[in-house]
Write a structure and sequence with these properties.
Shape: globular
Number of domains: 1
Strand content: under 5%
Structural class: mainly alpha
Distance between the termini: 10 Å
Radius of gyration: 15 Å
Largest sheet: none
Length: 162
């Protein structure tokens, strides 16, 4: 799992530079809602979307839930961000982050993103296992998790993440 986190860390660092994650001194930087950091959830879902594309995994109903969740998160950010942000900015940032992941997933880390058998215990420390786990979740379970994460209006934050 540590290697999976290490593979996700560059994206989290990249995401922190996006217009979605800019937190000035007037904003708390840690989500203390008990529901999780919304922007972290967004990053994990974008990473999963990239994994499905890069690894050529067959789309499942869960991938439709991911697409809806990303749309719901974007709406949450527009409604709750203390900084002016448009849906267009959010969509552009999400596309940039998806491209960032796809570049990594097809570069030197391709074997870590796309292990031959993600369910094999030998691959437990590879980054693709996290995305595979989300990709293969029951759609209702993932949908309920996202709905719960978005159930309390609050500043959309990136931390704590993973």
């Amino acid at each position: 799992m540590l290697k999976a986190i290490a593979l996700i860390a560059p994206l989290i660092a990249f995401a922190a530079t996006s217009s979605l994650a800019q937190n000035g001194p007037e904003h708390p930087q840690i989500d203390n809602s008990g529901k999780g950091a919304v922007l972290c959830l967004q990053e994990m879902l974008i990473a999963t979307k990239a994994g499905v594309q890069a690894c050529k995994w067959t789309r499942t109903p869960t991938d439709d839930v991911i697409d809806k969740a990303l749309s719901d998160i974007a709406a949450f950010v527009v409604a709750n961000s203390s900084q002016p942000v448009t849906r267009e900015q959010i969509d552009k940032d999400a596309e940039d982050e998806l491209r960032f992941y796809l570049d990594d997933a097809t570069g030197e880390y391709a074997s870590d993103y796309c292990p031959a058998n993600p369910e094999d215990p030998v691959n437990k420390n590879k980054g693709g296992v996290l995305t595979w786990t989300i990709h293969t979740m029951a759609p209702a379970t993932l949908g309920a998790m996202v709905a719960d994460a978005l159930s309390i209006p609050r500043e959309p934050l990136l931390n704590p993440c993973l």
